[in-house]
Amino acid sequence: MKRSVLIIEDDLIVALALEDMLIEMGLEICDTVISEDDAVEAAIRHHPDIVVSDFHLKNGNGVSASLRIQSVMDVSVLFISGSRKEVEQRVPTAICIDKPFTLTSVERGLTAVLSACQARADPSVSGPHV
């Protein structure tokens, strides 16, 4: 079964590049949204395995969206942002890669997110909730 990903990104070109990369990695895109409120609604509707989010959005921000989503479901988040320091100040345990990103950096970020997913699923493994 493919893992599903919700993309939260308000730049169309970046969103399309992420979709292509994630599909190439064998993931399924359940939705791509551009605002905080749309992200929460899409997460509730699709129950993604992973959220990939930018920080700055047209309406709201990715950190607030992710925290709202995590308040209603267990989901790991990979932030891809040009505002890495802002993300890490708000969520010190965040897994975040910088823009501009490469296929390799996205793969590394997703590996870290999936490791965090596995650690949460196995109580004998300790690790941060991201």
UniProtKB/TrEMBL annotation:
Residues of the Response regulatory domain: 4-114
Signal peptide range in chain numbering: none
Pfam family, one: Response_reg
Keyword set, alphabetical order: Phosphoprotein
Key word Transmembrane helix present: no
Modified residues (4-aspartylphosphate): D54
InterPro entries per record: CheY-like_superfamily, Sig_transdc_resp-reg_receiver
SMART domains to which the protein is assigned, alphabetical: REC
Name of this chain's protein: Response regulator
